[in-house]
Specification:
Blueprint: E1 2-7, H1 14-28, E2 32-37, E3 56-58, H2 81-85, E4 101-105, H3 110-120, E5 124-127, H4 132-138, H5 149-165, E6 169-172, H6 175-185, E7 190-191, E8 209-213, H7 224-229, E9 236-239, H8 245-258, E10 262-265, H9 273-278, E11 280-284, H10 293-300, E12 305-306, E13 323-324, H11 330-342, H12 344-358, H13 363-379, E14 384-387, H14 399-409, E15 416-421, H15 422-429, E16 436-441, H16 452-471, E17 478-481, H17 486-498, E18 503-507, H18 522-539, E19 544-547, H19 550-558, E20 566-568, H20 575-579, E21 589-594, H21 606-616, E22 622-625, H22 630-642, E23 649-653, H23 659-666, E24 668-673, H24 682-689, E25 694-697, H25 701-704, E26 710-713, H26 718-730, H27 732-745, H28 751-767
């Protein structure tokens, strides 16, 4: 792999040491790796002894000339203008575009890693040593920044959530911040402790002093050693680099004034650590640390360690066995030091045991574990994001809406993120899909309403809400819009344009005819036609268009869509489940019709057809399953009343998919499908699976999609339609022949087969 390791500043610290060692060990193991710094900085010690053979590049060199020099932000220890500006200059860091992965160390580098990832489609791993909020409330607790903490908290949570949720992998050095990140953001970081490279133990010799070794700053309480020196009769060596020289001067002054036996040693190079450990009785650190890398380094040299309870390094060692981990107060720390000094034999045993444990935590082992985690995560298919926002009510669901629900529930190894309104959640939850995480749109006053105007307003609101949801999601690799309606195509188009690397799969069921060729309200039909044409213009930007029949593919090609952009993906049916289903007792009907009430679905052809049927078959009964706007339901009731068919036609309302509907299908003789336009007709294949012959108008799907198992009549020819019903009701041999054909036909429409085909498409697009 080609890996870029990113830090903010090349200053002394555990984060920088970890990044350097990762680059070294990645290169040793055959990978190409380089170290990148956000900005140049001037300090006395920049790990010159560790950087031999390590290529270092500075991203700030690629900034405009007047932005290359970093200016320190007031009140912050390390934050500079380059930390804030680098994410906005990420397009200039083209040097990173050919890497397979970025490893961003520290929260201040992750925003830049996110921006680089967005520009060049390079995934990144976020190694979080200290979350931003933790730094704000510990390091800067007693600075003027405390007065701005409520506002800063809001900004930090927004930035941190976004950079973490977009990371391919999140790593913490210990359980300390793993728990914090889980609680704050609901994410699951993996823990990979830092390492050391001190393979040989220190030489035996007289141990004469207490060692404090760290990168010191006021917040790490170096003044603790002033109090310790007054309690013990041994020298104290305070080693390490200082972030603020004024703090060091103040400490030196106090040591001198109080005549304390404390020696300040600085600077300390990496190679100096074994020498410091050689005469150390114990390593003491008074500050709680998310990890505490010097503790691991000194333990590797056989020095027992003392650090406040709960610090990250204590994940690796046991209290009382490898050192002492007292509560976070000075009295307890001093008591722990005295315990070590009063028991030298026990202290040496602790040191030897600590060294044995530390053997397992080398930088080589650290890098290998990190690489394993990266490799595993890179092989995983990123979750596809589904937009399913066009639900009308909870009362019913169309076959087109069920397509994605059925497919996803059968692709359990894959993970999906679903953006949907609460109405959609109602239908999705019934599928019991365990591989879906839900992002719900807030309800609006226009939801659950079938009025065309109110539905349009609901769709408009959902479009805006979806764009907002997508903004805060991790970068989407594959985006799926489940149909061509506005609340799905508009957000999908926007996301595709702003994230060109994303692969967009769009679905369409059928083309809406012009309003002059469609039954129903002219204005409503005209609006539907124009909105679909607008959606089709947006869908020209998608990577694949899925249609549910070959005829529709041809129609789209006539509109200028490329042949290779369009694929036929049939709906399906659980053939075995429905075919073997044992029906419960329910009212039996000669024929059954299933679908939403609408003029273009042929709802108002049903009564004229059945009037003709009962002239020949007087006892024939029709069951109508479905729902729709109240005005259409009333119109249908009036039709039945005026035709005097109350004893022959029964409105059954909406039946949930499953047992109630299957019972009705299994107890019927045939399905009538009076739709004037249809893309697939899911109820057709479900009825065939239940052993029902189908009577329909001769739509393109009969002949293109379905080859047998039905009888058809010319569109709107209710006489012929009724005659076909009569044939199947009276001619048992014909009924059995068509029934056998229907059962043979459904084999190619199995949901499992459809799911496998869709999965292959996702795999292809993931690799593009």
């Amino acid at each position: 792999m080609n890996i870029a390791v990113l830090i903010d500043l090349l200053v002394p610290g555990g984060v920088q040491k970890a990044a350097i060692e990762e680059v070294r060990n990645l290169r040793t193991s055959g990978h190409k790796a380089e170290l990148f710094c956000l900005t140049r900085t001037r300090v006395d010690y920049q790990y010159e002894d560790l950087l031999k053979g390590i290529p270092v590049r500075y991203l700030s060199d690629r900034n405009p000339l007047f932005l290359q020099r970093a200016v320190k932000i007031p009140f912050f220890t390390f934050l500079t203008t380059n930390h804030l500006l680098s994410p906005f200059l990420a397009h200039r860091y083209r040097i990173l575009k050919d890497f397979d992965l970025l490893i961003a160390h520290g929260t201040t580098t992750c925003p830049t890693a996110l921006a680089v990832s967005r520009h060049f489609n390079v995934p990144y791993a976020a190694f979080i040593w200290d979350p931003m909020g933790f730094i704000l409330h510990t390091v800067y607790r007693v600075t003027p920044l405390q007065y701005f903490s409520p506002l800063l908290d809001i900004i930090i949570r927004l930035v941190e959530r976004r950079m973490l949720t977009n990371a391919r992998l999140i790593v913490a050095p210990s359980s300390v911040h793993k728990r914090a990140l889980q609680k704050a953001y609901g994410i699951q970081p993996i823990v990979i402790p830092p390492g050391h490279d001190f393979i040989t133990k220190r030489k035996p010799g007289k141990r004469t002093y207490i060692l404090g070794y760290s990168r010191w700053q006021k917040e790490k309480h170096p003044d603790f050693f002033l109090k310790l020196a007054q309690q013990v009769n041994l020298p104290i060596v305070l080693a390490g680099l200082w972030s603020n020289q004024n703090d060091l001067k103040a400490l030196r002054r106090e040591i001198h004034e109080k005549h304390l036996n404390i020696q300040i040693v600085q600077p300390v190079h990496h190679k100096d650590i074994p020498r410091l450990a050689g005469r150390a009785i114990v390593w003491v650190h008074p500050h709680f640390e998310a990890f505490g890398m010097p503790g691991l380094e000194l333990a590797s040299q056989g020095v027992p360690i003392i650090i406040p309870k709960g610090s990250g390094v204590t994940d690796l060692f046991k209290n009382g066995v490898h050192g002492l981990f007292p509560p976070r107060n000075e009295r307890a720390l001093i008591a722990a030091v005295k315990t070590i000094l009063e028991n030298p034999v026990s202290a040496r045993q602790m040191g030897r045991k600590a060294a044995q444990v530390a053997k397992a935590y080398t930088w080589k082992a650290h890098t290998a574990k990190l690489l394993d985690a990266i490799s595993g995560r890179m092989k995983e298919n990123p979750p596809a994001t589904i937009l399913h926002n066009s639900f009308v009510t909870t009362a019913s669901i169309g076959g087109g809406d069920r397509f994605m629900i059925e497919i996803v529930s059968r692709l359990k190894p894959r993970k999906f993120t679903l953006i949907t309104p609460e109405i959609g959640l109602y239908h999705w939850k019934k599928s019991k899909a365990i591989n879906v995480s839900y992002k719900l749109l807030s309800p609006s006053i226009f939801d659950n309403n079938e009025s065309p105007l109110l539905l349009f307003l609901a769709y408009l609101i959902r479009s805006i809400q979806t764009i907002m949801k997508l903004t805060f999601l991790p970068q989407v690799k594959i985006l799926i819009s489940t149909n061509e309606l506005t609340p799905e195509t508009l957000p999908a188009y926007w996301y595709k344009k702003t994230h060109p690397q994303t692969r967009w799969i769009a679905r369409i069921f059928h083309l809406v005819p012009p309003p002059t060729k469609r039954e129903g309200n002219f204005l409503v039909n005209g609006g539907s036609f124009l909105l679909q044409r607008a959606s089709l213009m947006l869908m020209r930007s998608c990577d694949r268009i899925l249609v549910d029949n070959p005829f529709l593919k041809q129609e789209l090609m006539k509109l200028g869509f490329p042949k290779q952009q369009t694929e036929v993906h049939y709906g399906g049916v659980d053939v075995e489940k429905i075919g073997s289903y044992k029906a419960g007792k329910t009212e039996a009907f000669s024929a059954i019709s299933v679908g939403r009430f609408s003029p273009h679905k042929g709802t108002f052809d049903l009564v004229p057809i059945w009037e003709k049927v009962i002239r020949t078959v007087p006892k024939a009964k029709l069951g109508i399953v479905g729902d729709g706007p109240e005005d259409l339901k009333q119109k249908l009731r009036d039709q039945i009343q005026n035709a005097n068919l109350k004893d022959h036609v029964k409105l059954l309302g909406f039946l949930p998919h499953g047992k109630p509907l299957f019972d009705m299908l299994k107890n019927a003789r045939l399905l009538i499908f009076p739709d004037h336009e249809a893309g697939f007709g899911l109820i057709v294949v479900e009825a065939m699976s239940a052993g029902l012959p189908v009577v329909a108008y001769n739509l393109p799907i009969f002949g293109e999609t379905y080859k047998k198992g039905y009888l058809t009549a010319p569109l709107k020819q209710t006489d012929t339609f009724a005659a076909n019903i009569v044939k199947l009701l009276e001619d048992q041999a014909l009924h059995q022949t068509i029934q056998t054909q229907a059962r043979e036909e459904v084999g190619k429409f199995d949901w499992n087969r459809a799911a496998r085909k869709f999965d292959r498409l996702l795999n292809r697009l993931s690799q593009e």
